[in-house]
Amino acid sequence: MIQIYGAGVAGTFLYYLLFKNGYRVSIFDVRKSPDCRCGWGIAYKEARELYSEIEVNLDDFILTKPEKVVVNGIELKNNGIAIFDKLKLLKELWEGIEFKKCEAKLIVDATGTKREFLPKIANDRLVPTLQFMERHENVENIYIHFERHGYAWAFPLGEYWHIGAGSIFENKIPELIEKLRLKFGFERKESVCSCKAKIRMLPPSKCRPFVHRNVVGVGEAIGCVSGAGEGNAPSLKCAKILYECIENLENYESRILTELKWVEREQRFLESVLRGLPAIHLLFRIIPHESKRLVKHSILDFFRVFA
Ligand SMILES: Cc1cc2nc3c(=O)[nH]c(=O)nc-3n(C[C@H](O)[C@H](O)[C@H](O)COP(=O)(O)OP(=O)(O)OC[C@H]3O[C@@H](n4cnc5c(N)ncnc54)[C@H](O)[C@@H]3O)c2cc1C
């Protein structure tokens, strides 16, 4: 028997992969129903392929595929980000599950930033975020206001938008959101929901151990979040790797560190920037990779954004 704790994007995906392939598996979440707490951006191609393995058609949940990503006023071509209704998708997946806690040989820690079952991480970096859902009629692009310590975003969801920000300095978050509003014309509106949450910004290698006694971690619990704060597709990928290693966990750590090396690289870049260390050499690997899977940009664009 395998017991999963945490039914976010990683836990639910892993549950269905195991269940559909004949494993005895149980899942439990402390929440009664899923909540939003995410911008709902996703790397479309990767996620669509992964979800198809549990017979979920991601297209049924896509709200929009914005044409451009506008960062600090610089317009970039969106190559692969779609906005999906994560709440609806999780609700549908939860409908097929009865949450239970069972005696199990293996426990999966899919509790995200909480990392409730694996040993705590020394010098963990949990970055605070704040997000609102508001109605706007702006052109359906993704808008970003970037600063060294964090960034604010506006993600189109159809008639509503997610407007939010995250920063290593919590007190700077309102200011980041205000700057985004001014720059891109999102006036302050009544919010239909708002949430405060944290996001783990550490390279996966610093979130070890991934396996401890009879507990194995998956998703954000083991740092599968990119330097730009993208955790949905990386957490799905991580869950797929765990599924493939479930009979032989010795290979799990090395597979995560190899197959999600790009996440490690982006987090290393971020860490170097925060510490004021040289990091430009990392951009020569990061930019081509991100241009292919998410947003088309160049080293020149990078410097224009921060000019
Ligand atoms: C404001 C914000 C915006 C974001 N926007 C994006 C975005 O646009 N695109 C993107 O790719 N990523 C985004 N991310 C990151 C992304 O949401 C996460 O990385 C991703 O959801 C991680 O998935 P997970 O399943 O590992 O963890 P989670 O989605 O956090 O799920 C963990 C689950 O564990 C449950 N849990 C906690 N403790 C326990 C316990 N003791 N027992 C049982 N269950 C427990 C929780 O209730 C939760 O359901 C954003 C994050 C934030 C905070």
Automatic annotation (TrEMBL):
Q: Which InterPro entries match?
A: FAD/NAD-bd_sf, Geranylgeranyl_reductase
The cross-references to SUPFAM superfamilies, in alphabetical order and at most eight, read:
FAD/NAD(P)-binding domain
Write down what this protein is called: NAD(P)/FAD-dependent oxidoreductase
Originating organism: Archaeoglobus fulgidus
